[in-house]
Amino acid sequence: MTFSESFFAARFGIERRDLERYLSAALSHGGDYADLYFEYLATSSIGIDESIVKSATQGVSLGVGVRVLANERTGYAYSDDLSPEKILSAAKIAACIANGPSKVEKTPLEEGSRRNLYPVFTAPSDTALADRVDLVKRAEKAARAYDSRVFQVQATYADSLRHVLVATSDGLLNFDRQPMARLSVQVMARQHGAAAQTGYSGGGGRVELDFFLNRRTPEDFAKEAARQAVVQLDAVEAPAGESVVVLGPGWPGVLLHEAVGHGLEADFNRKGTSAFAGRVGEQVASPLCTVVDDGTIGNRRGSLNVDDEGHVTQRNVLIENGILRGYLQDQLSSRLTNNAPTGNGRRESYEHIPMPRMTNTFMLAGESDPDEIIRSVPKGLYCANFGGGQVDITSGNFVFSASESYLIEGGKLTRPVKNATLIGNGPEALKYVSMVGNDLKLDEGIGTCGKDGQSVPVGVGIPTVRIDRMTVGGTA
Amino acid sequence: MSELLDLATEAIELARRSGASDAECTIAEGEEFSVSVRLGEVETLKQAGSRSAGIRVLRGFHVGSAYTSDLSREGVGKLVQSALEIASVSGEDPLAGLPEIDELGSHANDFELYSDDIERLGPDARIDLAKRAEAAALCVDPRITNSDGASFDSHRGRHVFANSRGFSGEYRASSCSLGCVPVAKQDGRMERDFWYSSARGVADLEDPEQVGRIAAERTVRRLGAVKVATQKVPVVFESRVARSFVGSLFGAVEGRSVYRGSSFLAGKRGERVANDRVTLIDDGITPGRFGSHPFDDEGVKTRRTPVIERGVLSNYLLNCYSARKLGMKTTGNASRGITGNAGVGHGNFYLEAGTRTPEEIIAGLTTGFFVTELIGSGVNIATGDYSRGASGLWIENGRLAFAVSEVTIAGTIQEMLANLEPASNLEFRGSVASPTLLVGEMTVGGR
User: How far apart are CA B379 and CA B245, in angstroms?
Assistant: First the structure.
């Protein structure tokens, strides 16, 4: 597809010379760089609760963001109206961040290379509503059928189709069509009048609706959510204090997202406010750990053909055999620090300024047999699933909340324990990794990461990992 | 009446003519400005305005919702069609519906939600506020070596709501805030903390120098933090942290979690759930405060509702739907974004102040943990289990002795409520407020 056939050209009649005119206006006060981000987003969501499809919403939003960089300064303005007057007016507001005569030579816009990591022929948002409603109905039925102690089931299906167009004063012109779909199920179970327990599961990605019919079905997610809720009914108090912790494969990779991922975002490191600042080349994890951020995995939730600044995404090694190798860059940080862009400049929408963000962050597989890892622990905690996490990137302290975990006693999983928060320090925690399993698994495609009030979809993954020391926030 | 209110009314009429039995329409218009400075220089400057509209329709007992950023006549036409289309796939919910006509209404009072001094303040003056805050922070202590910046943000907006049962209302609201995040370093380890002030108008913001100084003092006192041994001790939540605890309590008393049985307080109305020092209020009507509005997001008059009175759970907070589920009446707490079924929100939701000052409470403890920051989301409203990452200051012999970090605190909300003692320092810095709280013994997880 060429630019003239692309969504914004075809639907809104936007031409190259319009883009060049807007970029010139953005640089009229002497900025070093400017870019335009056009976004059209159509979303729908359908929710079932108490066996009734109670909510059904669809909508569209459209707009353009104009950014100007002048040294370390960023000027930003946006418009939800694509008329030339409104875009020029936004460009002039953003331009005011610089103060001087226009100095940038105009570079002709050239289309970036095309590839498609998510060749979704029919976006889920273009399928019959009835087919999508069916997914939540099936999930609800399967969760209720799982166990008589299940008493509340909520299932939500949501999809979106985003068209973006990025044009920069460096001459980059890129556009992308970004489909997304997600099905999630929350189940509550109770017995003997005791407190209700919750289980949660879901998945999706940049996929066709067929994914939910053949790859991961509503029944799969429903049973998993119901299983987690039922397991929790017999949970005992979690231990308090330092413990050996074994993380199961998949979603527990959220550890990497919090412990190292955020701390390696280039903005914090450029400013020297991250606990990882200035530590490239240093040992920040056990030699068993290699951590990558890879935005190029086909159909994944965290993947992008091009980031939100028009740069092609790539696979970036963050930590190699325990040694810190590099940071996640956006346009501003890579310019200021003379590093190549890494394809990690992302934003929530046209109303937001891009920042360095993660895509799919995971640890490569090691050599240990997962069963052997559990057998090696006389006393500890096995965490199979987590809720979210949070990090203070300056001190490096991070937490993540276990939602399904078990005591390990004598090398065996024994009793399930209640939800507990685990806490550690980023540059230290991974030094205690003593075994890495051969069972790398990526999550199901449900993660959303928040930073400075902006949410973006991400992925995580990890093999089974033994960590010799981590603090567990239980009461026992 | 504004143009936007006309537009909302037209959208509703169009929906009715196109087959909706009822409809409600929200339109929001806003203008945001934000500037951040770092190490004395402007870092980002952002300014823009936007509008959006949402509609929710009923076809009998089937609901459908839609939103758009296109407020042209054509855009609104598509909006209505979109909502009607998607209503056809939703199920029959006999309790779905708008408020009864006699439940609809709005306060005549504008509650002083809008201050025009923000628009009178030029961009340079706004930048100057942020610069002054940061400059004040940077000179408090030589260990303040870096800065994550200071920022001034403002928002001005108009909120419009109308429904097919005759309600139409609108109000303007404004807010601004000034915040600062210094970074301190000692022995190769860094800490950051923050302080901010927010208000409806610029005149009510704290002085920038004060914002910067408090931020710096909070940051410096975190330096040299240690991890204490695992133990049970009395825990005191500083008011900033106590607010997040009060926010968790909201999750347990809002109608939806109550009728779904997903709150540990479901079925406990009229029972003692806390000691008699605990009084929890939801107040949507005090002028100038962030949680005040003349009507809720279903067009029902807001009010003041006691939730826990001297330890006894007296009321849940309800919208129309959760009220019908529970066989009660709405408390004027409907809340939603631009569209969708209304959820339940709070007004100014706060714990009433007690009698002892925070200093007196700390002075009364031989050992304890004064928590100044909590991270993570380990609060389970269904069971009451509470487990979060914490940092703060250790209390020894009635004094704040040294900094503590990388520990957890755990217990249950039930136990915390049974032992809670609110201090005397209640301040409204947002729509959730709490004084400093002595929460009794909790398990600190550390070394």
Answer: 9
